Amino acid sequence: MKYLHIPYYLRLRDSLAKKIEEGSLLPHTKLPSERDLKDAYDINRVTVRQALMQLESEGLIYRLIRRGWYVSPPRLFYDPTKSVSFMDNVRAQGRVPETVILSKTEMAASDWVNRTMDIAVGAPVYLLRRRRLIDGRAVLVEHINVNPVLCPGLLDLPLECSLTETLKEQYGIKISRTVINMYPAPLDSTQAEELQVVAGAPCLYLTRASYDQHDNIVEFDQEFWRHDVLEISMEVNNA
Amino acid sequence: MKYLHIPYYLRLRDSLAKKIEEGSLLPHTKLPSERDLKDAYDINRVTVRQALMQLESEGLIYRLIRRGWYVSPPRLFYDPTKSVSFMDNVRAQGRVPETVILSKTEMAASDWVNRTMDIAVGAPVYLLRRRRLIDGRAVLVEHINVNPVLCPGLLDLPLECSLTETLKEQYGIKISRTVINMYPAPLDSTQAEELQVVAGAPCLYLTRASYDQHDNIVEFDQEFWRHDVLEISMEVNNA
DNA sequence: GTATTTTTCTGGTATAGACCAGATTTGAAT
DNA sequence: ATTCAAATCTGGTCTATACCAGAAAAATAC
User: CB of B93 under 7 A from strand C?
Assistant: First the structure.
């Protein structure tokens, strides 16, 4: 005997998903409040939230903390094998990028920086933290660790645009090799707040180690993307 | 005035996460039942489930439907830029791969197959469905569509191993170009059941279009990975 | 008109309880 | 000893209710 009953929370999920897919709910539209949905579908608010969280995990809707639930915009294509900057990539897909500097400091290298960047513990390292937005919506925060030996005074230059370009034009540094890692991870409370997301929400954690033409590690970047923003897309030639 | 109280569900999350990270709970260990955790931490079962689902979304634990919660094994590194087969990749990381054929059929090409594979609607296409396991745990199901014109009789050959190798050795087909896409998506009820996961659970959806030396599309692969299995890892040379 | 306070609305956390379906274990019948 | 049925345990779904903190809107004071 098979279980055939479709749970209420999946019915609401399907109902909303259908409206989103057929376009009667456009990106960034606010959904009715949880209490309104509860009344409209005559189910408990807990069940409503189960449906909403399901849709959130699928990337169909997102929430602004204590403000409401909204329809997600389409994902941004990202090709890790191409070194296209965030700004260029977003613009190329007809959308509007933005960068906000959260902080820029010179710090003493920690043990972790020592291991990942081969900088002596206590030696100076630049830490740049930025938030980046697409069409006005915060989509990632990044922590960029840079070796100041290779680019002294970097923090006094404009940092809203592509770092890679600045490194090339101002310091003659050409990134020749990049090591990328990514997997889902939870956001800690600081970054969650900066993305206006509940603490612990899943994100796509992406690290990028960039090496110059002499194989020095120039930059170690940690990116915390909202989990529903990216679609990884790439072409590989099997030589 | 800032909100400082740490919610109960996050405390339980942290408590379990700590035990997992420090190794006092080993991979594939069964956690106490939800009702036992509820009693042990003196909180409501709903709150316990909130913590467990949080850990699940982080990939630290997984569940076998109606059987319990278990500690997740480490992620498998996967480099999409290298064409290493599943079997080889799993073995290279000291783990035991397994493949189960779910079905193999010759079908009439659908509209969707026509668009993705450039095969006339109604013309034959091979569909191979496999489940793959690591250390006895189902981690993905895949739907492989193959153009039979390029490899007649393929379905009568052994299909448990690397398809790419079979295509090369039996038909002289060399995959020269691959287009890969991936993003999180929900599992439909069929695949969810095949992975012993609740319907709608998030997975990593990965598609792979493989072209031969004459740029014919040989194979279109849809892979549904458990969301907590992979860590994408790659090195890019910026020529 | 503008600033400030108050109220209302929103989602976030939490409790207590209930019943279901499937997996597992127990116990009884053979 | 083996088979089969019953009891138990597990997670899955759902209701009703409560209070909190922060965001937004409305009302008030200046």
Answer: no
d(CA B146, CA B156): 13
What lies within 8 Å, CB to CB, of B92 at 6+ separation is B84
- Top pLDDT among A188 and A89 is at A89
The domains located in chain B, with CATH, are 8-71 (1.10.10.10), 76-232 (3.40.1410.10)
For a pLDDT cut of 90, what percent of chain A falls above it? 81
Percent of chain B's residues with pLDDT above 90: 81
- Three-state DSSP state, B239: coil
**DSSP state, residue A60:** S
Q: Which amino acid is at B73?
A: P
The C-alpha angle with vertex B133 and arms to A4 and A58, in degrees rounded to 5, equals 50
Q: What DSSP designation does A107 have?
A: E
Neighbours of A227 (CB within 10 A): 24
A74-95: burial string, b at 16+ Cβ within 10 Å, e else: ebbebebbeeeebbebbeeeee
Please list every residue in chain B whose beta carbon sits closer than 8 Å to the beta carbon of residue A237.
Answer: 176-177
Q: Please tell me the distance from the alpha carbon of residue B84 to that of residue A95, in angstroms, as a whole number.
A: 36
pLDDT bin (cut points 50, 70, 90) of residue B239 is low
How many other C-beta atoms can be found within 10 angstroms of the C-beta atom of residue A187?
A: 23
A33 touches strand C (CB under 7 A): yes
Q: What is the average pLDDT score of chain B?
A: 92
pLDDT bracket for residue B173 (50, 70, 90): very high
A125 SS3 class: strand
The confidence score (pLDDT) of residue A2 equals: 47
Cβ proximity of B39 and B47 under 8 Å: no
Q: Which tokens hold the place of B155?
A: 């379905």
Strands B230-237, B76-78: parallel, antiparallel or unpaired by DSSP? parallel
> Residue A131's pLDDT band (boundaries 50, 70, 90)?
very high
Distance C12 C1' – B6 CA (angstroms): 12
Nucleotide closest to A201 measured between CA and C1': C12
pLDDT confidence band for B2 (50 / 70 / 90): very low
